[in-house]
Write a structure and sequence with these properties.
heterodimer; A: 272 residues; mainly alpha; 4 strands; B: alpha+beta; Translation Initiation Factor IF3; four-stranded mixed sheet; 4 helices
Chain lengths: 272, 157
Amino acid sequence: MKFTPKQLDENVNVSKTHPLVELMWLVGGLILLVGGTFFLLGVTTDWAASKTPVKVENWLGNLALNEFPAEQSPELKSRLDALLAQVPQDSPLHQYDFNIYLSDSDDVNAIALPGGRIVVFKGLLDQVESENELAMVLAHELGHFAHRDHLRGLGRGLGIAVVTALLLGENNSASGLISKAVLTFQVQYSQSQESAADQFGVDLLTTRYGHAGGATTFFARLAENAGSKIPYVLASHPHPKNRIEALNKRIEHLGYPVAKTDKLHPDLVLED
Amino acid sequence: MEILLQNIDLIIFILLIVLGYSAGSWAEKKHYRSIKQREKELLKMAVITAEGSFPPGQVANATLVSGSVVVSIDYFKRLLAILRNVFGGRVKSYESLVDRARREAILRMKEQARELGAGMIINMRLETATIGKSANKKGRVGSIEAIAYGTAIVKNL
């Protein structure tokens, strides 16, 4: 047997696909997969959230409130009751037993927790200047309850966590990538929820006071400090300026009158 | 600026991917050039996996020669492999790594045989091992080791 040395040009052991092309296919496939799962999950949880009885939600709320050390506020409660009186009788809002708390935190925020609990932060109360503005904030939170938003958020978060853990294992690096991607979707969803709650809020505010005055002034004050719009691409709330625009559009579209606002009653004026 | 700071881990991740891709493919191209060049130089050295039998008196010396090499993955290759774990299929990004390791190991073995003055290597065996088995686990870097060994034959003239 004769030995003939020869160098091979072809290499059958290495695939010819360009790595960047492969990356594109894989990332595209992953986005499709996650997007599809997320869409299905979203539809299911939205449906489930709308069917969940208020009783179950109250039970969930009891679990959640332990996180927020805050005191019940009778002053806020009276304003909330005045708003609730304007809500139509058949609304699911009447099934809630609302508790409203005032928290010591300096954050300019208010949150709706499952089970009819609303927490208002002192930082927000500092910024509020009229009764109408406060009513708008409370009506916005009521909007979250009316749309069952906290249940939806909870359901979606839980669903994504369970699905990625089931598909890929708990500590897979891919789960990290996916949660990053999903977070971006979640943000869009959360911003649309906020806008819907704003719309509900301005409707309720108008029924309460007969005009939509004060609906946008609070956001206008926030907008002054909010700065650029770019960071809001990834924020849970839309940029205040966008919220004002959307609210003004609704006020104009439905022909709500805008009148002077009532000054904040002294029982809620905070001393510095 | 704030948005950059808020997503600092995402930015670091992207930077590592870009760095992994550019540095990784540069190193790979360079390595392949060197492999091809040296393979050409050592083309005359026959390497066979058969045991080989020689007429008495023909073999002057028979020595064990071995060559081993460790090649590390880069961040970009790891990303591709992680994504492959989801869909299944050939992990193409690791193929070139294994190929490079095998060929480099054989080359080093041949170079050792050349220094001994051998004309051929018989009974060649190739083995691979992974150093850092948890290549796909978080924060770990995987690498592959290939070792080639065989019997270098120095013939009587």
